[in-house]
Amino acid sequence: MNHPIPYGRQNITEEDIEVVIETLKSDYLTQGPRIAEFEESFAAYVESKYAVAVSNGTAALHLCAMSLNIQTGDKVITTPITFAASANCIRYCGGEVVFADINPETYLLDINNVRDLLESAPKGTYKGIIPVDFAGRAVNLEGFKKLANEHDLWIIEDSCHAPGGFFVDSKGNKQLCGNGKFADLAIFSFHPVKHIACGEGGMITTNDKDLYEKLLKLRTHGITKNEDAFENSIEFAGGTAEDNTFPNWYMEMQELGYNYRLTDFQAALGSSQLKRADEGLEKRRFLADRYNKAFADKNFIKGQSGVIEGHAYHLYVLEVIDRLGLYNYLRENKIFAQIHYIPCHLMPYYRDLGWKTGDLAKSEEYYRNCISLPMYPTLTENEQNFVIDKINKFYEA
Predict the structure, then answer these.
(1) Which residue in 28, 119, 218, 381 has its CB near the most CB atoms, within 10 A?
(2) What is the CB neighbour count within 10 angstroms for residue 218?
(3) CA trace torsion 4, 8, 14, 15 (10° rounding)
(4) Secondary structure E strands in 285-340
């Protein structure tokens, strides 16, 4: 191959470009009609009641933590095998992050480890759980919801990797990631390598009206224009008691929020991309199936076999022998594989808070061997064959 093959990349079509240009020529660049259109379409796609578009996935996580009133010292459980933002959102609010180990078969937060943490501490020690749909594999939230109810906990589902992903519940029903039936809140990312690309961007979904309204306010500096929620009087606002109406200009900042808004042209791009979301998901599963067949029974492969029902395949992860050698060899051949993730608890910031090597053995073992292969809908058969061939040649040598 004469061109580089990244681990992930966006797919921008002429239709995407046209809708962005149309929005740039309109009266609105930010907080116009495209935002509401995108929110409504996305909520319908994941089958949730409400969706709130924000500037990125990290902002989505931060607003979720704020809306659930995380306070200094509050303890929240999450996985170390995730991007740092899944944990950092709790630290932004002064809370304490407690990492639980993964299930080495799924790479997801292990419910048994979470249960052990909860049952070994007095009730009320923990406030919530943040399971992550890592690589696109949906966490079975039915079990987590039951556990959360037993201990009076909330759940934030980090579904940045899994729009369109699902798990099958105990009644045989498909439960889409972010549908709000088991998690209080769910978040998604629209970074270029994700399923839906807006450049940057994020979405929060929920079925809770109170949380939805709080999120709308928090993403815009804590400001509301909802007359029913105003705390000051009509007279203070500049109106009169006789009119019994607030002036149209009036608004109130009622709490400390942030400017976490998405632009209208990003929302237009997101809506256009969303139309092709199922097509992209189908292609990702097709590519995963080809990888699985190519690496079946290879003695240098330690993990990953069979296409997993409901997996959204944001990433295709292998555990391999001599990961560093393979990584460097692939780069020499312009194949830019990636590593997902360095365990969060061993980042210097979290080490300074007391975490150390050996605390989460399964996560640390996974990190020593994991590598993410190219996985995106526009990856061609020839490109994928080239990747497979180079991996086989490396180990044959």
Answers:
(1) 218
(2) 23
(3) 170
(4) 316-319, 335-336
Per this entry, what is the length of the chain?
397
Give the pLDDT score at 301.
76
pLDDT tens, position by position, 98-110: 999 999 999 999 9
Round to whole Å and give the CA distance between 95 and 75.
6
Dist CA 123 CA 297 (whole Å): 46
Q: What is the pLDDT of residue 262?
A: 98
What dihedral do alpha carbons 30, 35, 37, 42 form, nearest 10°? 150
Say whether domain 277-396 belongs to CATH 3.30.300.30: no
Q: Name the band, by pLDDT with cuts 50, 70 and 90, for residue 305.
A: low
Distance set, CA 107 to CA 26, 60, 81, 100, 179 (Å) = 45, 23, 8, 12, 22
Which residues lie across from 317 on neighbouring strands?
A: 372
- Partners of 158 in beta bridges: 132, 187
Whole-number Cα distances in Å, 343 to 209, 271, 366: 35, 33, 9
For domain 5-100+107-223+255-274, the CATH architecture is 3-Layer(aba) Sandwich (3.40)
pLDDT digits (tens, 9 = 90+) for 325-357: 999 999 999 999 999 999 999 999 999 999 999
d(CA 369, CA 75): 30
- Nearest one of 316, 331, 324, 327 to 372, comparing CA atoms: 316
CATH 3.40.640.10 residue ranges of the chain are 5-100+107-223+255-274
Give, as one character, the DSSP assignment of residue 138: P
pLDDT tens, residue by residue, 174-196: 999 999 999 999 999 999 999 99
Average pLDDT over residues 205-224: 98
Q: Kind of pairing, strands 370-373 and 316-319? A: antiparallel
Span(s) in the chain for CATH 3.90.1150.10: 277-396
Euclidean distance between CA atoms 159 and 39, whole angstroms = 16
